[in-house]
Structure formats: structure tokens, C-alpha cells
Design brief:
519 residues, alpha/beta, six-stranded parallel beta sheet, four-stranded antiparallel beta sheet, 16 helices, elongated, binds ligand ME8
């Protein structure tokens, strides 16, 4: 039977600087969602990439005295490295400077033009280079420093040029009808409400070309113009699926199941993008989900962490899975979140080192000592054993529902509730006491605990893939038997199978010694 397809994307990043923690956050979360669906049996296509055109890229390159292409090449390499360092399991990495992407952009442009939605006119307005967007004068304010800024704070400058327009105003009603008919199209609810009131307040036609610089995709038939960078950027999602070759195998992944983005770019994804697609006669993505922003709480990070906004430094300092776990568990996905050294250490020491790490370490080392290093004898399990084992299956159901609405923190919460209960089970059963009084029962308790570790480790894979893999290796679980379909009884550990020597999987974070200045 053909597996269900699941297409998921990150935003494509501007490589005009180095990646920071916000970029890392988007990648970690999207990666966890992609891994979850893969483990749940879907045929997943996970896309990330870089957004290499636009005025911002050109200006940064000019400042550095290099070409925009050189700047894009240099920083795209760093973004790729960051995704790899984060354990990103993307199936493709797209660059908007690729030839296939130019072809896709020109094809969608042509479709929109053929549909009568593109016309040439002149435009004047307040342009923010940082946002790569025009703003209405009423949206801008002049600060005490005399600088005019758009609502998110970047400076705007007056711009007048001849430009092609997209007839966005013609899509107001169609967009509203789409939001009404598809309540899940935009999440979370705050973002949906925001978008709907923006669209209800009236849509103006959108300027979609630039003629004052040429770092972009040329407009078909008018090479003086390059496409507005957002037309080009959004199109990446269909380029990667093979557009305009809609007979391509990859096109069967479209429409995307979810575009994961930051809340700063909702308007582009939930208003402009669906309007472009409607105009071009292409199906719309099923969902656009915007996560919140991360802020450093302003507390001092450990001195040796150095530049805390650098994802590479964070990973090196705390370890990849600690970083992934912290952001996914601590920040309710969809809301803003803050991070600090203390918060990272407290959360990961409590949940990973103490709860999950100890559960695995205590049970596995008892097994190594008392059961000849093989999976203990299951014996006859009792009600309490079955009850706790069942909890893992229930956690999968809860996690599946939560992941369906991108509630990653809830999915992790459900899984770690089972870890906490498993610890209570283990402590309550006192296998160390049973060793003398009832060694057969001790074997059953150790068996149950090891089997629980197997189930929990399977569930943890999307979030902390490296550590989950180590746990499954310690239980000698076959590499081909680690998906959610293997969670149940049929694939349970087999008594008597050999186990490797146990090793700690989650080291406790210990403050590095300093020369008295404090960490
Ligand atoms: O917007 N906290 O690229 P970009 C959380 N190229 N997430 C953050 C963040 C923060 N402080 N700062 C950035 C672009 N992000 C366009 C996208 S898509 C067709 C084109 C995240 O590099 C957030 O997800 O400026 C944001 O949307 C993304 O980084 C890309 O930012």
C-alpha cells in the first residue's frame, strides 16, 4: 500500500549574515515534526534552504566589497553546516539562485500574467530593506532620532519606481472564503485572527518587481525588472517539488502539509502565497503554522558559552540533544519563549539526566550486574506492569494528536510523563530489595523497566535523535525495528538476548570551573 505523503518546509533563510538561534529554532522544530511523521510511517519530504536574492543581499555584499553571489555562497555554506550540526534530516536543500528555481519562478509568473493578474504601473512608498517590503505611511512612525520605521522597527526609505503589480485586491474575498472553509489553514489561532482582520481591512495590489537593481530572477519578457524577492522566495516550495514539471514524481508531494515559519512572515505565507497560487491555478498548502520568537532573558550565560546567539556554540557547550530538548519542551510551540543558561541547565538536568538518564542507567546497570548482561526473564507480569507498559502506547496517541497541531511541547510532555511514572514504578517496586526476597519478581520488574526504556526511546527519537539511538543501541534493538509501528508487545524485548555493557547516555551538566569570577 502506498504510504501517505507528508511535505514539510522551513522558511528559506537569508544568507546575508550568519545563522542565529532563531534560525536554529525553526530547523529543530521542523526537523522534529518531519522525524515524527517518518517514524509514524509517512513518506516524508522535508525541505530547507536559502533565500539568496533581494536588495538586502545586494547591499550587504556591496558593503563587504564582494558580489551578492559570493556572499550567498559563503553564508549558505554556514547555514548548511548549521542544519547538519542540528541533526536536520531534510531531504533537500534549495538555493533560490539555482537554475531550476529561476525556471519555476518564471513559470508561475507567466501563469499569473496569463490569468490577467499582473500589470505595469508606477509605485511610490516607504520601503524597508530589512523586511524587503513596502509599508503604508500609516503603518510607519518617526522616532525621536528622526528615523521613520515600520512596526517591527526597521528603518524605511521613500522609494519610487516603475513596477509590475499583482492584483492582490481581487483575491480579498477568495482568501477570506478560503480561511472560513479551512479553519486549519493558519495556526495558531492568534495568527489566524491577525491575518483575517488584515485581509478584511482591505487588500491593495502588490508591487512584485524591482528595476533599481538586478540581483534576482528576471521578469519574463522584461529583463529590466527582477521579481520582488518574496515572489521568488515563496516559489521555492514548489520548485523543490518539481514545478513546473507537474508530471514529475516529486510533484505528488504538493500541496505541502505544513509550512513552518516564524510569526514575522505570516502575511507573506498566509496572504500573498495563497493568492499567487490561486492566480496560477495551483493547489494551496494545507497549513501555515507560525512559531513565536525566542529572546535571551538577558541573564548572563555561562562565560564559556561566549556568543550565546550562535547555534554552533550552544551545541558545543550543552550538547545537541540538550539544546533540541530544551527549546522544544520549554517553549510552548507557537508562543514566544526565552532562554538563559540557568533555564537550559535546570530543564535538561532535571528531565534528561535525572529522569530519563537515571531510569535507563539504574535499570540497565542492575541488569548487567544481576542478569548476566542479557534481557531479564519476563516471567509472569502483573497488573501494575501491564498498566505502566500501556502508558507508552497512550503517550503515542497523545503525541500524535499534539503533533497534528504542531503542539510539540505537549507531545514531549506526554512522553516525559511516562518517564516520570516509570521512575515511580521502578522506585516503588524496589528491585534491589527483590534481589534477596524474590529474584524471579526482580527479573520481571527489570524486564518491564527495560521494555519501558525501549518504548520511551522509540518515542523520543524525533526530539532527541542521537540519545534515543544510543538508548536503543544499549537495548540491542534492531535498527529496522525502531518506528512507532514497533512500539507494541509484538516487538517487545526478548528475554535472554544479549545486551551491550551499559553506558551513561545523558551526562549531567556541571558548571565549568572558573577563576572565581562566577560562571
Ligand atoms: O524571513 N526567534 O528569512 P530570515 C525565532 N528569507 N525565530 C526566528 C527569530 C527569533 N528571534 N529570528 C528569525 C526570511 N527566526 C525569509 C523567509 S520563506 C519563503 C522566506 C526564524 O532568515 C523565523 O522562522 O530573516 C523566521 O521566519 C526565519 O527565522 C527566517 O528568517
Amino acid at each position: 500500500m502506498a504510504r501517505d505523503k507528508f511535505y514539510i518546509t522551513t522558511p528559506i533563510f537569508y544568507p546575508n549574515g550568519k545563522p542565529h538561534i532563531g534560525h536554529a529554532y525553526t530547523v529543530i522544530a521542523t526537523d522534529a515534526m518531519a522525524r515524527f511523521q517518518r517514524l509514524d510511517g509517512k513518506d516524508v519530504f522535508f525541505l530547507s534552504g536559502t533565500d539568496e536574492h533581494g536588495l538586502k543581499m545586494q547591499q550587504t555584499a556591496d558593503k563587504e566589497g564582494i558580489s551578492a553571489q559570493e556572499l550567498a555562497d559563503r553564508n549558505t555554506a554556514v547555514f548548511r553546516d548549521m542544519i547538519a550540526a542540528l541533526g536536520g534530516s531534510n531531504d533537500q536543500f534549495i538555493r533560490t539562485t539555482e537554475e531550476r528555481h529561476h525556471r519555476a519562478c518564471q513559470a508561475i509568473w507567466q501563469k499569473m500574467a496569463d490569468n490577467g493578474d499582473i500589470y505595469l504601473d508606477s509605485y511610490s512608498g516607504w520601503y524597508s530593506v530589512r523586511q524587503e517590503a513596502y509599508f503604508d505611511e500609516s503603518e510607519t512612525t518617526v522616532g525621536e532620532d528622526g528615523v521613520r520605521r515600520e512596526p517591527l522597527g526597521s528603518p524605511v526609505e521613500w522609494n519610487e519606481e516603475e513596477t509590475y503589480f499583482f492584483r492582490l485586491s481581487a483575491y480579498q474575498d477568495k482568501l477570506l472564503a478560503h480561511y472560513e472553509a479551512n479553519p486549519d489553514f493558519i495556526g495558531p489561532a492568534e495568527r489566524r485572527n491577525e491575518v483575517m482582520s488584515f485581509v478584511r481591512s482591505g487588500l491593495k495590489d502588490l508591487s512584485i518587481s524591482r528595476s533599481t537593481f538586478n540581483w534576482g530572477v528576471p521578469v519574463p519578457g522584461d529583463e529590466k525588472h527582477v521579481m520582488y524577492v518574496w515572489v521568488d522566495a515563496l516559489t521555492n516550495y514548489i520548485t523543490a517539488a518539481g514545478y513546473p514539471d507537474t508530471n514529475a514524481e516529486r510533484w505528488s508531494y504538493w500541496p505541502a502539509n505544513v509550512h513552518v515559519i516564524g510569526k514575522d512572515i505570516v502575511r507573506f505565507h498566509a496572504v500573498y502565497w495563497p493568492a499567487f497560487l490561486m492566480s496560477a491555478g495551483i493547489e494551496l498548502p494545507k497549513r501555515v503554522y507560525a512559531h513565536g520568537f525566542l529572546f535571551n532573558r538577558g541573564e548572563k550565560m555561562s562565560k564559556s558559552v561566549g556568543n550565546v546567539v550562535d547555534p554552533f556554540t550552544l551545541i558545543e557547550h550543552y550538547g545537541l540533544d540538550a539544546v533540541r530538548y530544551f527549546f522544544l519542551r520549554e517553549v510552548p510551540f507557537g508562543q514566544d519563549g526565552s532562554y538563559s543558561h540557568d533555564a537550559i541547565v535546570n530543564r535538561t538536568n532535571a528531565d534528561l539526566a535525572n529522569d530519563l538518564g537515571n531510569l535507563a542507567q539504574r535499570s540497565l546497570s542492575m541488569i548487567a550486574k544481576n542478569c548476566d548482561g542479557v534481557v531479564p526473564e519476563k516471567g509472569t507480569l502483573g497488573e501494575e506492569d501491564f498498566a505502566i507498559l500501556k502508558r507508552a502506547g497512550e503517550a503515542l496517541e497523545t503525541a500524535r494528536t499534539a503533533m497534528g497541531t504542531q503542539a510539540l511541547h505537549q507531545a514531549l510532555g506526554a512522553i516525559f510523563n511516562v518517564v516520570a511514572e516509570a521512575n515511580r514504578y521502578f522506585a516503588g517496586q524496589e528491585p534491589w530489595a527483590l534481589k534477596k526476597t524474590d529474584p524471579t519478581r526482580m527479573q520481571s520488574v527489570l524486564y518491564t523497566t527495560a521494555e519501558l526504556v525501549r518504548r520511551v526511546a522509540i518515542l523520543c527519537q524525533p526530539f532527541i535523535p542521537g540519545s534515543a539511538e544510543k538508548l536503543l543501541d544499549l537495548l540491542a534493538v534492531d535498527k529496522g525495528a525502531r518506528s512507532f509501528a514497533h512500539l507494541g508487545e509484538e516487538n517487545a524485548l526478548v528475554s535472554g538476548s544479549a545486551l551491550p555493557a551499559p553506558q551513561p547516555v545523558f551526562p549531567r551538566y556541571v558548571e565549568p570551573k572558573t577563576d572565581g569570577e562566577g560562571a
